[in-house]
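User: I want to check something. If I give you two sequences, will you return the structure for each one separately, not as a complex?

Assistant: Yes, each is folded on its own. Here is the first sequence with its structure:
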Amino acid sequence: MASVESPCLSLAIAPLKAAEPDHYAIWVLHAPYPGGYVHHDLRWTQPLTQAWHNWQSMFSLRSLPPVPRFPLTYTPPAFVTPPPDASSPPVLPSQPTTHTGLLMQQLGVGLWQWLFDDSPIQISLERSQGIAIGQGKPLRLRLEVRDPDLISVPWEIMQPQPGKQAVSLSQQLLFSRTTSDVDPLPLLRVEYSLKILLVLGQDEDVDAQDAKAAPQGDKLLKLEQEASMLADLLETAAMGDSGHSFSTPVACQVKTLVQPTPAELIDHLEAGAYNVLFYAGHGAPAPDGGLLFLRPDAAISGTELAQVLTRCQVKLAVFNACWGAQPDHDDDRAIPRSSLAEVLIHHGMPAVLGMRDSIADHEALSFIREFTQALAERSPIDEAVAIARQQLLTLYKFNQPAWTLPVLYMHPEFNGELVRPLTEGVTEIPDNSPSWIARKTPVAFLRSLSTPPRTWPVQGGIMRVGSREGNDLVIQELGVSRRHAEIFYRDSFMTDDGEPAYFLKDFSRYGTLVQMPGNGWYRIHHQEVPLQSKTQLRFGHSPALEFVIDG
């Protein structure tokens, strides 16, 4: 899990109004070392305009306004020209998979080269990455886009070169957007659990005639069923087997509101001490942060919502609503600081996650499930977004827009911590620190029942078992989860017969089989049980192993 003290490199893109319309300055606003505060002036290029138009024509699910001024005079060609260093022929539209993948890659590489290549900004990035590597931490990369006409550009797809990972997919370069024009971040509560307010507003997919024809009771019943399903998804995901980290997941409480009035929403936020707001429903752009249609007869603006969210110290707001990360427009001109995400950050919200465009229900559910799992395992918010974005890419492929849709904004003073890491005061299970080893933990081990037996010691009072490399015991058998179970010692407990108290906690998808001495086999799933010496365990379809406490 990323440390909250990870070094950070913040960049700003600003138009140079005294120069030509397509001239920009790129500034380093914050760097991990004194010499990293550099700037670079450059022009927006015609090849980048071409790649942006081609990308929009293929991937924009709605009719997004193009980047004004210079791109408006450009007509996209019938095919896409490969990058300059490629020797392959042009890819025609009759090859959809190759064509869409090339479009994604071409714009991603073009944006990276425009922002970094052959400039002092690239040197600052490389040195900042070196500092982060030396500290054994990821580097936070935050981008402030001061030209509202460039907000809709998918900076999240930037990649250094073909075949390299896109910036927003990396867990070593944690990417987010930001803005320096913000209210100060207040002193935030220390959180030890997820407390989520799930709000379902008006469904944007309901046709007006259908809405009139369907009885109001039927519509509310459907929404209540959907809310119940989403609440179960969030609570289950918080306990689930994601394999991101080895820490014990935190508790998760979910409260649902179905089509509340603005007053009801505000009352619940003020009374509940929530740290996360999830909103799903219809949204629309507007100059004051857009509108969220809570119900057919009531809406709340981003500016109005910002007041209560900051007052109630909600750390993270997630919006599954179209246009949440897009600015409003006046004719063909983007209105500055008008998107919902920007408005909330300007008012002092720590983190906001919106969608750049409409996202399908199944894609949103996949993202939310993985995102909640990572948050419950104490990942910082920007790291959790990267993990969930990777899941979207795996399920729906690189050449599809799903993984590009989430857009994360972070307050420049916020370190990304939603739930306090275990290393900062929460001790649910023993760790491998020298102070723990000094307590002379009773020796225990797992051993095979074959001849000759193999043994695996429980070192430092804890053993992590799973199929993923990095576990203390790696078992790559069918039915073994990446993060399957933990065996650990509690020195404050003793069994009835005076035996040292070891425990097994299951995190797996299908459970762990346990056979205590003198008893039959039984399955535990997401439970914690004490372990006696000579207890037999089966992880997935692996052969039985015997747990032994020495002496």
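And separately, the second sequence with its own structure:
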Amino acid sequence: MSENNFNPRRTVLIGDTSQERSQLLEEILRDDFHLQTICFQNFYNLMEKVKVNDDWLLALVADDLHLDSMQKGMAPHSYFIKLEDYVQSGCLVSGKHPPDMTGVSRPPHCIYVPRMPASGNPAQRETTIAGLKSFDFLPQQIVLPRLELTSDDRTLREQLRSLSEQRHPDEGREILRHLTRWFFDCDNTTIEKLGQGLSGARVFLLQIEEGGKKESYVLKLSPLENLWKLEEEVRKHQSANGLTGIAKFKSHLAPLHLCLDSPQDTYIARYKNWAAVCYGYLGDKKFGKSIDLETLLVCSLNELSSKIQGSKLHHQHFSSGKSLLESRRDVFNVFLNWLSEEWCLADDKAERDMRQLWLTANCPPKQYPTLPPYQLKGKEKGQILSFLDGKDAEKVSRLLPSWDEHRSRIWGFIEKDGQPTDIPAFDNPVLVILSPAHGDLNAKNAMLWLEHPDHPLLIDFPSFQESGHALQDFARLEIEIIYALMDCQAENAESLKASDHTHTQLDLWIALVDQLLDENGWMKKAAWKNKKFDANAKHCLDLIQLLRHKAELVQGQCKPENSELPKFFAEYLPALLYYTLKEIGYESRTVFKRLLAVYCASKIISQVEQLPLYSASPHS
């Protein structure tokens, strides 16, 4: 982790040439006090760091610390004289007697730790902890909660293993216990699995027992290398919540939970290679529970009934004698109505501006951009090219007609780094529609209250834009339907025993994509000539047609005088291409869905090359 990410008020600076002693202190401060450490092997480097900030919690200096890389050292008291105007300090005593502290106005506490502490010695560890407790300004020694799993679930076990570099479930449990302790001083914690995203984050549902009551929270973990994502999520949380949901529901959106024993407004916990934020779980006594859109669209009727039985959501949409597919359609339509009316069609939130739709230069790596222009990160481009050039694609490429043509077209488009695309619809400024945008609107981030189903809500806002392309969330949802949900519904288990892990559906999926990319035919009923199982693909087409009709309404608003709006496809396809290209790079998608994404992205590029921006020439 970069030292720029250390919180000085929870950081202990250690100056010690003994790596064994430094390692022992680092482990104790991390595991028993939840403090961070920065280690130095000479006093000169430690002093330079001390002067950078006056908020360091503590500096521990060994009595035999070298002065710099060339000189072995001075008398220890001279170190503490220099430090006492900057930071609280302590002395690591290597022998039986403390060094002379003559001239030090505030003599440091002494901790007796040998230069070569015995590895794994419990007595040495306890002695060191007792020495650290002599600093009364340090936080109290922590006690970790007991951790229980709600069920012996395969997915949950894998989530725990994934937290450990050695993929050991016990280490994964310890990491989760420590991160939970950052937010809750409790005795017992129960964890349940939640749906996982595509960003590398891990998400757990916590049941915390406090004072005899159980409360639910969501713990979201991200690798420390992606700490910036959590920082962006915290930063954008308040501004996003101010623009989502009608007034009486806003106060019931998921609140961020503060870290314990930390400076004000500290929301991110860190332990080993992970960082975490904690949200209150959606639902309370007044408004009840909520359910995510993915569950409503894919789980079995029996499971769904067990989750929503007796609620207004069940009464309004799942108990009127309609088929399950009709009920799913109704629920999706409720969400689309809310999304378009609350954000995209609101007079005070939508506007138009001239924007270029695509840039080929790499998006800055640690940034969530405001779209448009649509722009891929260098890592995302690399993931796409790795698939196009990889063994998995080679094994299945014969399933896709004209594979070489599609591969070449995408490859050439991705490699235009910083150059024009030579496609007018991408390179020329366009009068686009802007509104608040979630930026990553997948089916797990869209929620419905069980008792207030007409008022959906959104969660997970690191990609939020106060004024982004109003069509991006519709395009993102369309991609979600095709690549995450299509042929994954529980009711298809008998007809599709391998769900979407099969090549037999690929021709049908291609037929669906071809229809959706037909500017004049995407709204027609399916008339695909195939003998494969097509019930779910037709249902997905129906959902996407609903979505597109809403997107057309959004795209057609705010028409200024004396100017022509771009054609719907000219403004919608760039957003669709952006999310389709990203699907190619997702290793968690089946190879057949990734193959479909290659076909779809290639067809979009080819179509946009020939697509006029306007229905007629715009007039001035």
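Because they were folded independently, the notes below concern the second chain alone. The longest helix spans residues 324-344. Confidence is low (pLDDT under 50) at residues 245-252.
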